[in-house]
Amino acid sequence: MRRDASSLERTRPFGFRRVLPVYVRRVPTPPFTPDPADPRYLYEQLADYIAEQIAAGELRPGDRLPAEREFGDVYGVSLGTGRRAVEILRERGLVVTKPITGTFVAKR
């Protein structure tokens, strides 16, 4: 049986199934400006900054944080600083990281 290109039904090789994209709300984040007089590490300042956004309601439960590699573009920090800040937020229970999907603000 021959199918034309306009057919809605297509077979996938080797039983692969189509994965639908997950749509999440991307939140524009205000710029992060570290305080040079603050004796804390930069990743601690960034973690506290994001925690303040969560407490103020700017980041709601289920909102997605930028990917670790995007932290440099969004917050102006290095990859390692972004990773450590997310780790601190995860320890505090403010965010949840799901493999492949990303990091999201935890539901309370």
TrEMBL record:
Domain of life, per the record? Bacteria
Annotated membrane-spanning segments are: none
Task: Write down the InterPro entries for this protein, in alphabetical order.
Answer: Bact_HTH_transcr_reg (IPR050679), Tscrpt_reg_HTH_GntR (IPR000524), WH-like_DNA-bd_sf (IPR036388), WH_DNA-bd_sf (IPR036390)
**Gene3D superfamilies per the UniProt record, alphabetical:** Winged helix-like DNA-binding domain superfamily/Winged helix DNA-binding domain
Cite the GO molecular-function annotations of the record.
Answer: DNA binding; DNA-binding transcription factor activity
Q: Does the keyword Transcription regulation apply?
A: yes
Q: Where is the HTH gntR-type domain?
A: 40-108
**Which GO biological process annotations does it have?**
negative regulation of DNA-templated transcription
Alphabetized UniProt keyword annotations: DNA-binding, Transcription, Transcription regulation
Protein name in the entry: Putative transcriptional regulator
What is the source species? Saccharomonospora cyanea NA-134
